[in-house]
Amino acid sequence: MRNGKKTVLVINGPNLNLLGTREPHLYGHETLKDVESAGAKQGEDLNANVDFFQSNWEGAIIDRIQEARGDGTDGIVINPGGFTHTSVAIRDALLGVSIPFIELHVANIHAREDWRHHSYFSDKAKAIIVGCGAAGYEYGIAHVVKKFPDRENVA
Hints:
- This protein has 5 helices and 5 strands, in the order βααβαβαββα.
- The protein is of the alpha/beta class.
């Protein structure tokens, strides 16, 4: 919790900065800015803090996850993008900070190429949201706020 409010960190991995313009037939027309604006409004409506972070760099994502350990984050909603299928390092960071998380994918990764079916995160996620488009962010934020326990800050 931060300032008496549940705090959700939404992390977006590589290429999600192109949301709305990259393969809109798969990912829809909502941009990352649209997702962030809707999430901020949702946070206000739920009396919660919703923080957003996007990077195409694995190390930057790891740094942000580690920062969340002491900044009042109660839960993480992460769309790891292509790192879903490759990043043991991000998985280890999530496990290392002991913050519960939701794995999110805008498109249905199980309806795509076989190699996209494997995730390094699914077995540790509290929930998985797949194929709901940008609305998946709304579902993930609401779930963290309503269902995840408050965390004590750990330095």
